[in-house]
Amino acid sequence: MNIFVDTPEPGSAHDWPRADAELWSAAAGGDADAFGALFERHADAVYNHCFRRTADWAVAEDLTSLVFLQAWRRRRAVRMTGESILPWLLAVANNLLRNADRMSRRQRRLLARLRPAAEPDTEPDMGEELAARLDDERTMRRIREGLDRLPAADQEVLSLVAWSGLSYADAAVVLEVPVGTVKSRLARARSRLRQMLPDDTLEDGQERKLR
Amino acid sequence: MNDPMDETRIPRPRPMPPHRRAARTELLTRAVARRRWSWRRRLAIAMPLAGAVALGTTGAFAFVAHQEPAAQRHTIRCYSTGEWDNKSFYSEVAQAVPAGAGAGPADVNDVLDACATLFRQGFLREGDPRLHHETDGEPTRPTPRLAACVLPSGQVAVFPGTTCRQLKLSDLAE
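^ Those are the sequences you sent over. The predicted structure of the assembly is below.
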């Protein structure tokens, strides 16, 4: 899969248009530090994307590592002309999420190798943080009950555009469909989800915050 | 205006816990750095086997079993079944010159013989999708009829008991 990304529009949310391409180029050439820098930069966006699709912070953390490793292994298939590497990473994430239930033994071994050892929580406010994360998971599971009833294509467009904040154009690249299809799928997904959930989960003002 | 913390709303984004992120960055960069030198690791695996495999005097062969796409003629795939979908099993054979001015990856000229050796040794067995570790001391096991083909990715792949045509693949040009 080749990805061509256009020059960013004015006001783009991405702050490092050239640096991403330079870092990816260096990473593809074997520069592990450049790869680490990209991980630092985009890990949280991928992490939250994976959480919204799995409703599990721990699984999302594992998947984030796997997304980056998978992206690196397919590094020669990426072609950037500018902008951010994030759309490509989310495309990799979606592929993994689609097959998460039937992960190969090899992928499980990789996951284990990329998982840090558990450490005792020493921060004083860790208990509060943990409780908040459990609340997140409960909330997200409830939303997913509605989301899971949507076609997979609608779920993907909703999570990419409404929740991860990709532009229609970037989402079209990720999903390999025309921009018009992204818009129509999004409208359909929003409409269906509103009918399924008791509250206006997808209100526009909220969406912008949910990157 | 609805309360943004209403439980029917999407939870707010959270950063990965800093100590976990630092540890994962470290593990990932280490994994990437290690993979960069994978042919050397393969060579290291090959050295103890080089005598038994006895494939030549200028280099050493090694094989690793995995489903990672590879390229170039210095790394070829030996399949144990006449299938090449994502679930098919194969061993990867790499040739390298271990030392001297020409040290580094080297082309596998006789790809059929390279894969036939794995069957003769018993590492691969026709129709059995796994790598055997209990092998014979003497390379006496039967070698199936082999076909050297080219996958759509350009990767050289050798299959037992079939033809490239049956697999809808191109023959490997010599």
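The helical segments of chain B are 18-36, 38-53, 111-121. The interface with chain A takes residues 2, 4, 6-17, 19-21, 23-33, 35-36, 66-68 of chain B (CB under 8 Å).

Shout if you want it in another format.
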